[in-house]
Amino acid sequence: MFELLGIPPQALFGQIMLGLINGAFYAMLSLGLAVIFGLLNIINFAHGALYMVGAFTAWFLLQYLGIGYWGALLLAPILVGAFGVVIERTMLRHLYKLDHLYGLLLTFGLALVIQGLFQNKFGSSGQPYAIPSVLQGGQNLGFMFFPNYRAWVVVASLGMCLATWYVIERTKLGSYLRAATENPTLVQAFGINVPRMIMLTYGFGVGLAAFAGVLAAPIYQVSPLMGADLIIVVFAVVVIGGMGSILGSIITGFTLGIVEGLTKVFYPEASNIVIFVIMAIVLLLKPAGLFGRTA
Amino acid sequence: MALKRKLMLSAALALAFTAGAAQAEISGDVIKIGVLNDRSGLYADLAGEGSVIAARMAVEDFGAADKGINVEILSADHQNKPDVGSNITRQWIDVDGVDVIADVPTSSVALAVNEIVRQKNKAFLNSGAGSSDLTGKACSPNTVHWTYDTWALANGTGKAVVQTGGDTWFFLTADYAFGHALERDTTAVVEESGGQVLGSVRHPLSTADFSSFLLQAQASGAKVIGLANAGGDTTNAIKQAAEFGIVQAGQSLAGLLVFLTDVHALGLQTAQGLVLTESFYWDLNDKTREWSERFAELNGGKYPTMVHAGVYASVLHYLKAAEATQSDDGTTVVTKMKEIPTDDPLFGQGEIRQDGRKIHDMYLFQVKAPEESKSPYDYYNLRATIPAAEAFRPIEEGECPLVQG
Amino acid sequence: MAAARDIAEPKGRMAGAAGAIPRHHYAAFAVMVALLLVAPLFVYPIFLMKVLCFALFASAFNLLIGYVGLVSFGHAAFFGGAAYITGHTAKVWGFPPELAILAGTAAAALLGLGFGLLAIRRQGIYFAMITLALAQMIFFVSLQAPFTGGEDGIQAVPRGVMFGFLDLGDIETLYFVVLAIFLGGFLLIYRIIHSPFGHVLRAIRENEPRAVSLGYKVDHYKLLAFVLSAALAGLAGGTKTIVFQLASLTDVHWTMSGEVILMTLLGGLGTVFGPAVGALVLVSLQNYLAQIGSWVTVVQGTIFVICVLTFRRGIIGELGRLLKRSL
């Protein structure tokens, strides 16, 4: 019923905008992964779980402390980031001298533990979280009804992504970071506390995941498994983009969101696998990924 | 295996205490009921520990202790995985001597358990699963399907909605066997009742974002959007439909598999106006209210779903039949269950058909608006009662080998 | 390939002693066979068969992680893919069990070839992520393809009669058939490890550039190892289907890939007997914990964390260190 040519351009435009919203989440999560990978050389498998923890933190804050959405948007990333710092200090730190794969395995284990604990406590059906009153309702764009909240998600995540990019690529702090990625010993010799920088980077990356989680809370049910399958898609996004550049992961995230959104219109059955198919094709043509440095 | 040993020990103790009351045909002198369901996942709220409580209440209300019948209840989590569920079932029957398996939500697990119970000649009282195959192609002389099935849900919701003016439909269908079956059954009912299906879109299982599909549904202009999916998919779709103003814009949602616990999780603000079919609601009459309040007290204040009610009623009826036959042999008891009419406070009077289908009324409910709700769990308005005779698939259409010839 | 070296680092030394099979391996193998022969007298046989299937699966996985240093996060695709093919051919096409299992194994090998061609283009963590993503694709295909039965899986797969005279409906016969399959697979893996091919694999793991400069076509070796590992994982998956008469989504889900890594890690990466021991421990644990549901994930995760932080040699690896033998 929805053939390629049967779609009015306005409806198509609507679907592109929706894709952009999903892309926003892919971008924020893959950005966090990229930042962490850059400095720690660890693929953070717990990223999806921490995204979920972010959403739950927002829910806790509201439920037990009466702190609303805006407070949570600020507090949840800080709290989850602090939790990330604890993880880094107590566990990840011991793995830096080993193969990077151990980091992947450790964070995989952590993801299982975190998800399992939340599942035991809250079951799987999820907790509702209301859209903040300011952003309720939506705009009738003529061709579609666009909820205000979704527009906010796109704006907020774009802002967050660009700010991160700016800090890393254009500020002094960022230059230290990039230098430490290349040669930690040398940077240390210049009197910069590299271990602390690593710790804070992990905290920041994780905080980014939590920020995405809070943004997601009003859209999706806040449920323990909300990050479990998402993280695998984000992995594919990361492989497609390559881990080379910060901007690369942002662009790839948004683009793939749109591609996925369009698939939902033209061939909805495939919308779950389209990203993996793209990954396979990219690997065949450009093994290092679209924005990756050498393999 | 400490647990197993403990169970064996308690069985032995039970044996020692009741050696006087001879029940030669009840194996081990104890009827063991295994409540197998989801205790941690998606269906933990609608089944889970609540079903164990319900089974315990049934044993109590039956007065097993006074009648000198030993009943023991075991429980386990099948995690909604057929392999886990069939493992536990095999082990329960082979090692622990379980006589009857109860509840088992999730059709895939239920079908697997159905197969094993038949092989081993035990009894299976299904309450939680929806697949109408349990009393159709896969029907078994050892199985009773109590509470509901997909056919009944499709029939109830489909027919009633069309009759009340919702005559054009668009489906959001979970893209796997279960979703396809729901869509197919509902489409048949809608068309039979004079309605029209304008289209459908198949979404992958466990979709987080429904906006794109909802937009397609909206563009179709159908009056009713049928949600041929379950669990998290349904709640997410409902939640996002509210966000996109679908209901305010004049379309209505019909959930084809929605439970009280889903409505509870969504909140009335989001779920209001939703139409759904169930076979039990706590606030139907004095008996259901009385029972449900007792249940809620034992279940941390959470009210029962129809699945809990079904576990209670089916276990109660099983015990009656076991008492009448003085046996815990699978087919013997199940055959007896079909012979004697059913009568319990929750589903009233009814019967179990030859194919194992329990027959009772189904109800069409509409979720209340927040301001209509006066107390916790006061969620539904009754819109229509579907009489027992029309509520379930006619026996001859089920292709159940047991009834042919 | 620093990745490979480090991952295999815990056992390092055992790689030596080319060709000659150490005598204590014979002894350990004899003990294992003896235990497995008498075990069904004391333990629930279906449980034992589950352990055997997973032991074979983990051993197949170990071929890759322990001896080539490649960490695949997508082995569930081979295990589950084979389970589906075996189930389908046995149930719908009426294949006898031996052919059905063979069909499953062959399908897994083919799938392995496809995965391998794509994945060996990248190394280390990328390799892991790519295999994971590809396996997730197989998961979605399994969910939606008409022959897999979606959520229901393929149920009531007939056990059938093997070679025309072994009735697998009989639990005892079934047990010994599964035992034979396990031992056959196990010995084959052992043979591969100790063959010249196995030595090249280890050379690649230890120092890939050197292997390249010695003129080995490294990618071919890696690909062949990957296909072998996939095929053996498929053998395990197909056998599992015949035992449980069921192929389901659990078998292809990514948590299954995680479980097999955990089994191997827990037992000891790159040890001969480790994966089997790891499978035994983990399957027993799951059996125990089935009563308490989702705590299984918490316990598994905790074991993962503990293994990675403090116990990287695994049970058999540590034991081997104590005995100063490679096991």
The number of domains of chain B: 2
On the 0 to 100 scale, the average pLDDT of chain A is 86
Order of helices and strands of chain A: HHHHEEHHHHHHH
Distance between the termini of chain A: 44 Å
Number of contiguous helices of chain A:
11
Shape by Cα distribution of chain B? globular
Strand order within the widest sheet of chain B?
2-1-3-4-5
Chart the SSEs and their pairings.
The complex is a heterotrimer of chains A (295), B (405) and C (327).
Chain A: H1 9-40, H2 47-65, H3 69-90, H4 100-122, E1 138-140, E2 145-147, H5 148-170, H6 172-182, H7 184-189, H8 194-216, H9 230-241, H10 246-266, H11 274-285
Antiparallel strand pairs in A: 1-2
Helix pairs in contact in A: 1-5, 1-8, 1-9, 1-10, 2-3, 2-4, 2-8, 3-8, 5-6, 9-10, 9-11
Chain B: H1 2-17, E1 30-37, H2 48-62, E2 70-77, H3 82-96, E3 100-103, H4 107-120, E4 123-126, E5 143-145, H5 150-163, E6 168-174, H6 177-192, E7 196-203, H7 211-220, E8 224-228, H8 231-243, E9 252-255, H9 260-266, H10 268-271, E10 275-278, H11 286-298, H12 306-325, H13 330-339, E11 342-344, E12 348-352, E13 358-359, E14 362-367, E15 380-386, H14 388-391
Parallel strand pairs in B: 1-2, 1-3, 3-4, 4-5, 6-7, 6-8, 8-9
Antiparallel strand pairs in B: 10-14, 11-12, 12-13, 14-15
Chain C: H1 2-8, H2 23-38, H3 45-67, H4 75-91, H5 97-119, H6 124-144, E1 161-162, E2 166-167, H7 171-193, H8 196-206, H9 208-213, H10 218-244, H11 254-267, H12 274-289, H13 295-310, H14 314-323
Antiparallel strand pairs in C: 1-2
Describe the structure.
The complex is a heterotrimer of chains A (295), B (405) and C (327). Chain A is built from 11 helices and 2 strands; from the N terminus they run H-H-H-H-E-E-H-H-H-H-H-H-H. The model of chain A is unreliable at 1-5 (pLDDT under 50). Chain A is globular, with a radius of gyration of 19 Å. The N and C termini of chain A lie far apart (44 Å). Chain A has a domain at 23-226. By secondary structure, chain A is mostly helical. Helices cover 69% and strands 2% of the residues of chain A. Chain B has 405 residues and is α/β, with parallel strands linked by helices. Chain B has 14 helices and 15 strands. Chain B has helices at residues 2-17, 48-62, 82-96, 107-120, 150-163, 177-192, 211-220, 231-243, 260-266, 268-271, 286-298, 306-325, 330-339, 388-391; strands at 30-37, 70-77, 100-103, 123-126, 143-145, 168-174, 196-203, 224-228, 252-255, 275-278, 342-344, 348-352, 358-359, 362-367, 380-386. In chain B, the strands form 4 sheets. A 5-stranded parallel sheet of chain B has the order 2-1-3-4-5, with helices on both faces. Chain B has a 4-stranded parallel sheet with strand order 7-6-8-9, sandwiched between helices. In chain B, strand 11 (342-344) and strand 12 (348-352) form a beta hairpin. In chain B, helix 5 packs parallel to helix 6 (177-192), helix 8 (231-243) crosses helix 9 (260-266) and helix 12 crosses helix 13 (330-339). The termini of chain B are far apart. Residues 1-24 of chain B have low confidence and may be disordered. With 327 residues, chain C is an all-alpha fold. A two-stranded antiparallel ribbon of chain C has the order 1-2. In chain C, helix 3 (45-67) packs across helix 11, helix 3 crosses helix 12 and helix 11 (254-267) crosses helix 12 (274-289). Chains B and C meet through strand 2, helix 3 and helix 4 of B and helix 3 and helix 6 of C.
